[in-house]
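User: Here's a protein and a ligand (zinc ion). What would the complex look like?
Assistant: Let me lay out the input and then the predicted complex.
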Amino acid sequence: MDLIKQHNSQFIKKGIVGPDLELFKNTIIRTNNFQIECKECERNKQKIEEMMKNIIDGHESYDYVDEFEEITIHLREEHNLVEKGYYMAKFSTSGTLIGGAILGFDHIGLPIGFIVGIILGTFWDRKSKSQRKVI
Ligand SMILES: [Zn+2]
């Protein structure tokens, strides 16, 4: 964590900014918390430390995109966490499709499906946030 604070500009320069930086930080915090009980997270913590050192040393951050993605997948699948806005993205798309299928793919069915999807997505995103299920 301190490494990120110290080298914030380095990470920003390497393209890890805004929501990505947030996800990056949160993934580190989550992995730190789970490593006590989870061997995989213990290994991932070492990977992250290595990754951070390499980025600070000047390696390109996109070299680590896949590796980092694997770590977030582990958090999602093994520890039942979701990324911020996950349900919103999921429900707004499927809501639109379902709305279209039921009410017709026109100016009525699609927006109604979309709105219902947004409402459900917001509900589930809030629910998972309140249950501390967001990475
Ligand atoms: Zn784990």
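Summary: The chain has a mean pLDDT of 88.
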